[in-house]
Amino acid sequence: MNFELDDVQTLVRDTARRFAQEEVAPLAAEMDKTATFRMELVKQMGELGFMGVAIPEQYGGGGMDYRCYSIVVEELSAVCASTGVVVSAHSSLCCDPIYRFGTEEQKKKYLVPLASGQMLGCLGLTEPQAGTDAGAVRTTAVLDGDEWVLNGTKIFITNGGQAGVAVVIASTDRSAKHRGLSAFIVPADAPGYKVAKEEHKLGIRASSTAELVFEDCRIPKENLLGRPGEGFKIAMQTLDGGRIGIASQAVGIARGAMEQAIAYAKERQQFGQPIANFQAIQWKLADMATEIDAARLLTWRAAWMKDQGFKNYSREAAMAKLFASDVAMKATREAVQVFGGYGYIDEYPVERYYRDAKITEIYEGTSEVQRMVISRALLRD
Ligand code: COS
C-alpha cells in the first residue's frame, strides 16, 4: 500500500475539500437545526461522481477506487457529518450490493440512476427485534405469480425518507432462519411501500432516519438480488464495505473538530496570550492529530484490501470503524474542551461535531459488534 496519494486521489481530495467548504459548510448548521437535508447537494455531488465514487463509469459512477471513496466521505464529514453519511449509506449500502450482486438489467435500471446521483438509495435491514441480531429479520417476501409480496417494518433506515430505491432484506423461508433471508431491490414507488416515520436524533440531524413499512408491497420477480437464501451474506458483506465508509466519516468528524480547535486556540486569548501557547492545549492537539492519522491508516488499509479484491476484510473493516469512532468521540470531546463555554453553545460548530460523533459507535454495527467480528477472526485463525 502506498501512503502517498496518486494523481487521481489528490484531485479527488482537492475537489471534495473545495466542494465541502464552498457548498456544504455554509448549509451545515442550518440543515442540522432544521433536520432537513438539501437534496440539491445530491445532484451536485452526482455531477462530481461522488454518489458512486467506486462504481464503474459504465454504471453511472465515478470509476475510482475505494480509497477515493474514503477520501470523499472524510472531506464531506469534516464539514458536515450528515452529508458524509448520506453519501456513505447510499454508496456502500445500496449501490455496492447492486453492483456486486445485481444482474446486468438490475444495474442498468437501478444502479445507473443511483450512482449518477439522480436518486438516493438506502438499505432496509434493521427491524425492531433485529438490530445487532441481524439474522432475526421478520419481514417476509412471498412469491405470488410474477411478483414478490413484502410485508414487514424496517427501522432506523438512513436515507429512508428520501430514497428512491431500497435494498431490502426479507425472509423467504422462516424455518431456515438467517439462511432463509433474501435481498430485494424495492423501488420507493412500489405499491405498499410507505415511509411511516422520521426519527428525531441527537446528531447527524440533517440525514433522514426513517421507518419503512411494507404492506403487501409488490415488486417484480426479477427484483430479487442474488439468489434466494443469500440475503444474510449479502447484508454482512455489504456492511463490511459500509464500515469503511463510517470509519471515514468518523475520521472526517475528528479532523474537522481538530481543525476548529486549532483555529480557536490560536485566536482565543487568556492570561494575555493565545491559549495555543499552553501545554495543556498543545497536548490535546498532539493526541488528536496522532489518533486521527492512526484511524485514517486503518481505514485506508481496509479500503485498500477491498480495492485489491481480498475475499475477506471483515476484521480490518471492523478494526477501522471501532478505532475511528472512538477517535471521533475523543477528538470532539477534547475540541469542545478547548473551546470551553463557547464549545457548549451553537455559536461555534464543535458542539455539532460532538453530537454527530456518537452515532459512529452505533450504526452499521455497534463497537461491541466490531469487537465480536475482530475477536471471532482472531480465535478462528
Ligand atoms: N461476510 C460473509 N458472510 C458472513 C459474514 C461476512 N462478513 N459474516 C457472517 N457471515 C456468514 C457466516 O459465515 C455464517 O454463514 P453460514 O450460515 O453458512 O454458517 C452466517 O453468515 C452467520 O454468521 P454468524 O454465525 O457469525 O452470525 P451471527 O448471527 O452470530 O451474527 C454478527 C454475527 C453479530 C457479527 C452480525 O449479525 C452483525 O454484524 N450484526 C450487526 C448488524 C449491523 O451492523 N446492523 C446495523 C445495520 S445499519 S444498515
Label this structure with key terms:
Butyryl-CoA Dehydrogenase, subunit A, domain 2, Butyryl-Coa Dehydrogenase, subunit A, domain 1
**Helix and strand run:** HHHHHEEEEEEEEHEEHHHH
Radius of gyration: 21 Å
Bound molecules: coenzyme a persulfide
Strand content: 15-25%
Distance between the ends: 23 Å
Largest sheet: 4 strands, mixed
Low-confidence sequence ranges: none
Strand order of the largest sheet: 1-4-5-8
**Helix content range:** 40-55%
Shape type: globular
Instruction: Kindly report the CATH topology of the largest domain.
Output: Butyryl-CoA Dehydrogenase, subunit A, domain 3
Instruction: Give the strand tally.
Output: 10
- CATH architecture classification name of the largest domain: Up-down Bundle
Count of domain modules = 3
Mean pLDDT: 98
> CATH top level of the largest domain?
Mainly Alpha
Count of helical stretches: 10
Structural class: alpha+beta
CATH superfamily of the largest domain: Butyryl-CoA Dehydrogenase, subunit A, domain 3
Description of the structure:
- The protein has 3 domains: 7-115, Butyryl-Coa Dehydrogenase, subunit A, domain 1 (Orthogonal Bundle); 121-230, Butyryl-CoA Dehydrogenase, subunit A, domain 2; 232-380, Butyryl-CoA Dehydrogenase, subunit A, domain 3 (Up-down Bundle), CATH 1.20.140.
- It is globular.
- The mean pLDDT is 98.
- The protein starts with 6 loop residues before the first helix and ends with a helix.
- Helix content is 52%, strand content 16%.
- The strands form 3 sheets. The chain has a 4-stranded mixed sheet. The chain has a 4-stranded antiparallel sheet with strand order 2-3-7-6, covered by helices on one side.
- Helix 6 (231-267) packs parallel to helix 8 (314-339) and helix 8 runs antiparallel to helix 9 (350-357).
- The protein is α+β, with helices and mostly antiparallel strands and 381 residues long.
- Residues 93, 123, 125-126, 132, 134-135, 178-179, 232-233, 236-237, 239-240, 314, 363-365, 369, 372-373 line the site of coenzyme a persulfide (COS).
